[in-house]
Amino acid sequence: MATETTGETTTDNVTVRRTVTSSLDSVWGALMQPQGASALLGEGGELGNKGDAWKAADGTYGVTRSFHPQEQIRFSWHADEDAPATLVDLHMRAAGDGTELELVHDHLPADADRDWLTQHWDKALARIEEQAN
């Protein structure tokens, strides 16, 4: 199975999908390690339980909103101290021997750079894939 990535944008959200060759167990295991959490949130970002705050070295920050092992992680995401809260929802499921990842970044303000966000999250999913291999 080859890695496949797709992305789409709407006025309210950005969606990035990637099918990776690693098993769901491997992907989840990678996300639960510091390098995997940093791959998703940014350097220094740490995933936590529902209600736990996180902050990355690049100034992005938020709070874990939902945490369902091997299914879903949802967290608020602020681009910086002055940015409005947006919501990122990462779903994962087994796909044969691999894993389908779908990340939706929702509640975007009208002036959000959707192209940049699509690239940002696509790179994050690629880093998660690297960590899972």
From TrEMBL:
<comment type="similarity">
    <text>Belongs to the AHA1 family.</text>
</comment>
<feature type="domain" description="Activator of Hsp90 ATPase homologue 1/2-like C-terminal">
    <location>
        <begin position="61"/>
        <end position="130"/>
    </location>
</feature>
<protein>
    <submittedName>
        <fullName>SRPBCC domain-containing protein</fullName>
    </submittedName>
</protein>
<dbReference type="InterPro" id="IPR023393">
    <property type="entry name" value="START-like_dom_sf"/>
</dbReference>
<dbReference type="Pfam" id="PF08327">
    <property type="entry name" value="AHSA1"/>
</dbReference>
<dbReference type="InterPro" id="IPR013538">
    <property type="entry name" value="ASHA1/2-like_C"/>
</dbReference>
